[in-house]
Design goal:
The structure holds two protein chains of two kinds. Chain A is mostly beta strands. Chain A has two domains: about 80 residues, Immunoglobulins (Immunoglobulin-like); about 140 residues, YVTN repeat-like/Quinoprotein amine dehydrogenase (Methylamine Dehydrogenase, Chain H), CATH 2.130.10. Chain A is about 15% helix and about 45% strand. Chain A has a four-stranded antiparallel sheet, with no helix packed on it. In chain A, strand 23 and strand 24 form a beta hairpin. Chain A starts with a helix and ends with a helix. Chain B is α/β, with parallel strands linked by helices. Chain B has 18 helices and eight strands. In chain B, strands 3-2-1-4-7-6-8-5 form an eight-stranded mixed sheet, sandwiched between helices. In chain B, helix 1 packs across helix 18, helix 2 packs parallel to helix 16 and helix 11 crosses helix 18. The longest helix of chain B is centred in the N-terminal third of the chain and has 36 residues. The termini of chain B are far apart. The chains are: A mainly beta, B alpha/beta. Chains A and B meet through helix 1 and strand 3 of A and helix 2 and helix 16 of B.
Chain lengths: ~300, ~500
């Protein structure tokens, strides 16, 4: 037991020694101090944190290459201004001047190294003049002006397929809108609205749906799908109307506008139309106001309105 | 009397006050002065790394010793001693304080005594039941029938409930048993100096060489009456059937005891232990109103002999039951309560220090060192896991942008992570050693359990938080607030194969 107790005492002393010898170095490193072997003094330093996208880039500090690659933290660096160059093969280098302050961390964590040859991939497999994205469903819609066809693919350009034929309106459409169920597309110029079905070939009844509604009485400023994918909210330069998506559907005026070419926003989640209009105030002057029109079927009798209009 | 009581209350407050002080310091300074707090955490982590390395080395040394002395024929060694140290004069008094433990627990404990490699005619067994437990008389009769003629003496004692100045503790029961045994020994004209008393938990199964080892150390130790004899407690009786984390906790407890066995100046008795019967009588037996009777008895002897009392480690195992219950959550509760009872050992601090203050004969340096050891071990127990797992990230979370822009704010998680990863390396040593202390796998336990035994060490961070510091902090808080604990008998289960 005596021998073991001697070994233990030795171990204990060694542990104490390691603790007291190691602690100054660990603390000085943690606090950003560097021990100068020549002067036997601790100097306060700073550090640079480097992160690049993509990682693995070479680091040059004042033209001197470091053996580490990004992401990397350059520790115990004396205060001052440094030239930093970060290089990655087949990428543009990143160059910069970095100011290092004593006792502070300089963070360069959002460096993006752009490739010399960008990774560009053609997605369409037909000629196209226009496309738009359905972010929710992860799909691209393309329009080929030569044959008036609409194509669809996923975001990688895969599953590229024709899905509908366009009806020609003149002048060319100014906006395109997909219905909430993604089965119908409306597009319009200032006096015509065209609706075509994007339904799959398995639903021929819907597939044949394609018509143009003429709208000569006023200039169309904007048009939106109602969330039920059947009603169209039409913003003209004098009125806000609603109509069914069917041939020869009559429009019902919901609001008369004082302001020509009003700005609008339609929130399909709540079926609310926000629009700007001018109203005369009590002082007799005209003021612009922002209005909210609730078109939710639960609270707004759209069907009744349109039925009575049809009967007329 | 009031002055003594007042002093005791002050001393009761100290451990909890310091532990909570450390925790509150870290929380407040994480917000107020994060650099200072982060520096303190790094110092603590580095200290913990060194300490873990040091203690793991001690564990390896203790394990090596246990391994080499495992199958030693101690009785032969006793026989080889000089005639002046005649082992045949020695009687072993073995006391089992029993509370609710049934025959499935008690019978194997007695069977181990019967199987031990030591003459049974030198053993006196006292099964000391609690009278308030209705089943006890019936169990006593059955065991008497089976074991009465096996040993030199076999007594069934029934500890009455509600004796004056007694609490419902194991120490009270053991003291009652020792007094019954004293009468028996007097009647048999056996001198107390020749009797070694072993007080075992009811589920204790001793190694077959235990009594030979004990007798040898008793006969060869200088001042044998001024020493307690502490075997290594292992929890192997049901270890293969215990849930993973219960097994880990019990293995860790055994390892801690092995480490302590190498630190003789701090070593105190724990759980099942042995000592001179004469000394036990001189110090007026075990405490009858304290939960931590196993260690208080050491301190009573230490004070009685004016500091000239020690614990001799026996590198031989006594096996007990791992504490677990019928399901996972109940087992956590059982384990938590058991660890809280162990941590309640902090009640010794006011007991010891108040006596140190009134004592004039124990050397001052010894008093200071022992007081520091007591305080340091309990405070470390209560705060280390909380600091490492919960408090260490606080300076980063509460320190604000300014702190995050400083090198220490950037380096703190890296350095603490690195230091703790080094600490985890020691876990590998613990895993390896744990495999060697396990009993053979029972046939009804599937082979895959061998893999589980290794993988379960992944749960250590979770375990140290739940069962490491928290029960100790609760025990200290209770003592600080004067909300004293009552004895809690740990639920244990034994699979009958």
């Amino acid at each position: 037991m005596l021998v073991e107790q001697k070994i233990r005492a030795g171990l204990f002393c060694l542990s104490v020694l390691i603790f007291f010898l190691g602690l100054p170095f660990i603390l000085s490193f943690s606090l950003g101090y560097k021990f100068n072997r020549h002067t036997f003094k601790f100097t306060r330093t700073g550090l640079i944190v480097l992160k690049t996208q993509p990682p693995g880039a070479d680091i040059y500090l004042d033209q001197m290459p470091l053996k580490e690659k990004t992401p990397h933290t350059i520790n115990e660096i004396l205060p001052g201004t440094y030239h930093l160059r970060i290089e990655l093969e087949k990428h543009y280098p990143w160059l910069g001047e970095v100011k290092v302050e004593a006792g502070k961390v300089t963070r360069l964590e959002k460096i993006i190294l752009f490739p010399l040859r960008p990774n560009v991939k053609q997605l369409n497999k037909e000629r196209l003049s226009l496309f738009w994205v359905d972010e929710e469903k992860g799909a691209f819609y393309y329009i080929n002006p030569e044959n008036n066809s609409i194509y669809k693919s996923d975001l990688e350009g895969e599953h590229f397929e024709p899905i509908a034929e366009l009806l020609e309106i003149k002048p060319a459409p100014i906006k395109w809108r997909l219905s909430a169920d993604r089965e119908k597309l409306l597009y319009f110029n200032h006096h015509q609205i065209a609706v075509v079905s994007l339904a799959s070939p398995n639903e021929p009844s819907l597939r044949e749906l394609a018509f143009i509604i003429d709208y000569p009485k006023q200039k169309i400023v904007d048009a939106y799908w109602h969330s039920d994918s059947y009603y169209i909210i039409l913003v003209g330069d004098r009125t806000i109307d609603v109509l069914e998506a069917r041939p020869n559907a009559p429009a019902v005026t919901l609001v008369n506008l004082n302001l020509n070419n009003t700005s609008t926003f339609y929130d399909m989640r709540s079926d609310t139309l926000y629009f700007l209009d001018t109203q005369k105030a009590a002082d007799g002057k005209l003021y612009d106001n922002l209005y909210k029109l609730d078109l939710n079927i639960k609270t707004f009798p759209l069907q009744e309105l349109l039925k009575s209009k049809s009967n007329e | 009397m009031n002055k003594t009581r007042g002093l005791k209350r002050y001393l009761e407050i100290i451990p909890g006050f310091i532990s909570w002080g450390i925790i509150i310091f870290i929380i407040v300074f994480s917000f107020w002065h994060p650099v200072l707090c982060a520096t303190a955490i790094i110092i603590f982590d580095f200290y913990w790394l060194i300490r873990t390395g040091y203690l793991t080395t001690l564990l390896i040394m203790a394990h090596r010793k246990l391994f080499y002395e495992k199958d030693k024929n101690w009785l032969a060694d006793c026989q080889g001693l000089s005639p002046r140290k005649d082992w045949q004069n020695i009687y072993h008094l073995i006391i089992f304080p029993v509370y609710k433990e049934g025959l499935e627990i008690l019978r194997p404990s007695l069977e181990c005594l019967r199987q031990s490699h030591y003459p049974k005619e030198k053993m006196i067994v006292v099964m000391s039941f609690e009278e308030r437990h209705l089943q006890s008389r019936e169990n006593a009769k059955i065991l008497e029938k089976e074991f009465k003629n096996t040993f030199f003496g076999y007594l069934s004692a029934f500890h009455p409930d509600g004796l004056a100045d007694e609490a419902r503790t194991k120490g009270a029961n053991a003291t009652w048993a020792a007094k019954q045994a004293k009468e028996f020994l007097s009647a048999k004209l056996i001198t107390y100096e020749d009797v070694i008393v072993s007080c075992f938990d009811a589920d204790t199964c001793v190694d077959k060489e235990y009594f030979g080892c004990l007798a040898y150390h008793f006969l060869t130790s200088p001042k044998p009456h001024q020493a307690s004899y502490q075997p290594i407690p292992v929890y192997n009786n049901n270890i293969w059937y215990a849930p993973s984390f219960a097994r880990l906790v019990e293995i860790s407890a055994s390892f801690c005891q092995m480490i302590e066995s190498m630190r003789l100046e701090k070593f105190v008795t724990f759980s099942s232990h042995s000592m001179s019967f004469k000394t036990l009588i001189d110090i007026d037996y075990w405490p009858v109103n304290m939960i931590s009777d196993d260690s208080v008895v050491y301190w009573k002897a230490f004070l009685y002999f004016k500091g000239d009392y020690r614990v001799v480690p026996l590198y031989i195992t006594v096996s007990m039951d791992a504490a677990y219950a019928s399901n996972f959550f109940k087992t956590i509760v059982v384990q938590y309560k058991q660890k809280r009872r162990w941590a309640w050992g902090v009640e010794i601090f006011p007991f010891v220090v108040s006596r140190f203050l009134s004592d004039r004969e124990i050397p001052l340096t010894k008093k200071i060192r022992r007081t520091f050891n007591l305080l340091e071990s309990h405070i470390t127990w209560a705060v280390w896991a909380i600091i490492i797992t919960l408090l260490a990230p606080l300076p980063i979370l509460l320190g604000g942008v300014f702190f995050s822009q400083m090198p220490i704010g950037y380096n703190l998680p890296k350095i603490t992570g690195l230091l703790l990863n080094f600490t985890l390396v020691t876990s590998l040593v613990w895993i390896l050693l744990s495999r060697t202390t396990l009993p053979p796998r029972p046939k009804d336990v599937p082979w895959i359990k061998n893999v589980v035994l290794v993988l379960e060490w992944i749960t250590v961070p979770f375990i140290i938080l739940i069962l490491g510091s928290t029960p100790a902090l609760e025990a200290q808080t209770r003592l600080m607030l004067g909300k004293y604990m009552e004895f809690y008998s740990t639920e244990k289960r034994r699979k009958v194969v």
